[in-house]
Structures are given as C-alpha cells and as structure tokens.
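Hello again, I could really use a second opinion on something today. I've been staring at a protein lately and its backbone has me curious. Please have a think about how the structure follows from the sequence. I owe you a coffee for this, so here goes:
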Amino acid sequence: MKIIQKEDKTYPEKLLKIKDPPNQLYVEGNINLLNQKSIAIVGSRVATDYGKNCAKLFSAQLSNQGFTIISGLAVGIDSIAHIYSMEEQGKTIAVLGSGFNNIYPEENYYLYKKILENDGCIITEYPPETPKSKENFPKRNRIISGLSIGVLLVEAKYGSGGAITAKLAIKQGKELFCIPNRIDEKTGYSTNLLIKQGANLVTSPQDIIDFYLENGINAKPQECKSPNLEQYEGIYNLSQDLEQYKEIYNLIGELPISANELAKLTNKPITKISEALCMLEIEGLIKHIPGNKYARN
C-alpha cells in the first residue's frame, strides 16, 4: 500500500482541479493508472438485463480502445464494468468508500483481488481500518468522476449513487454520457432526465470514441486487438439445449467467479446458478477450479 499526499508529485493532477480533493490517497496496485485517460462507468446496483448488456459492451470496447475504466466496486453495473474491462486485457481502477481492511461489498473481495492481479489499481481516501459507512459512498463518487475525463451513466434510479456521480461530473466540468432507457423503467429515470438536460446521448461505444477523437484525444494503444463484439452482445455458439444458460455463461470469463457471485450479478436463485454451472461444465465449456469457483475452459 502506498500513501499519496496532496502535495506529492505523484498525486493525480485531475483530482487537484476538483472541489474538495482528498488530502491523501491510499493506493494498492498500478499507481500509474491514476494519470491515464480514464472513463468512469457507473449505474444501478440492481441492474436490468438491458443495463448489464450495455455495461458489458461499453466497458469492453472502451477498454479495448485504451481507456482505463473507473468504477466503485459495487454490485451491478460497477462490477460488470470492472470485469469486462479486464476481459479485453484493459485496466481498471476501483474507488472504495471504506478502508482496505473493510472491502465492501464483501462478496466483491474476489474482484478486488482480481483487479490487483490484472495490474489494476484500488484507491481510497480512508485509512485501512475505516469501516463501511453510508456517508462515505456518496462522498467517494467525486473521486470517481474527478479521475475521469468523462462519465458514462448506464442506468440509475432517481437519487441513486450513479445519478450523484453524474451530477458531480457536470459540476466538475467533465463530459457526461448517458444511455437512453425505457420511460416506464425506474432505472431509466436519471439517464433520460439528464439527456433532456443536455447530457450526451450515446447508443454505441463508438459515439464516445468519436467524441474524444474529434477533440484530439486518442487513448488507443498500438497493440490493441479488435474486440469480440459477439461476446458482449451475448451471442455465443451454444447448443439449443444450453441457450437458457447464456446469461450465466456470458459472465464467466478467464477470471474465476463463484456461484454466489453469479447469483448476485444475475439476481437468479442459487439453485438456477448451480444447474447452469453443472450443465456448462458437463459440456466442457467451463471448468471448476480451487476455491469453488468457475472459469472459461
């Protein structure tokens, strides 16, 4: 763990430009990511299938183009943004609302470890022993938006953490991108409202890439590979018998994941998850690994 004071040369320049920058940052992992071109991807903890698929597609393709993906390690959209940015060999930053000795939510401790194993970065303004606190999470959102050059709001209810981050981005002078949603969907309220108020409406990752190219910003590394678009649209060559398990299969990548973690991401009962894992393993599509977790075979 490293501690960066506001006066240090390694302190992220972008954070110095926001209101109330943290006096210090506690950092684990790749400290160099803090000064890279980053896009924050945030949204609902109780995500819809529509929101999940959008988060997968945008995080994978933006990461593939060289943008570091920032989010808050929460369940739902945050977790998907972290996971799928790493699927494309990209990098991700997680901003905590607690100390390193109190990772929250607890079920995302595996994700915390995988981000570090993938040369990512975890940061917090709180000392290691700081417990989770309702007051800390909205406050940490200013860091998520502050470290980024733009924020993508996938879906968010009124007054949610994602909506707070979006409003902070506007106050900080960052570009805000929103994915439109159904008018009768609660998680679409904030995105649709912010679009009406002037946020950038995006329907494809290319919209964000083109926006920054037009403004002279190109984060794409030379060695970038072309993303497998079918993967993030949920289109796999599964047999007809296994089609019902497609959503679960899509969430299992090279990073190990447990049945409980899949249940959290999909909102499916653990019995359905176990059934799917059993069938996918029988077909040789996934493998069981130590720690009672699963990965792509």
User: Anything to note?
Assistant: The chain has two domains: 2-214, 236-296. The longest strand covers residues 24-29. The chain has twelve helices and twelve strands.
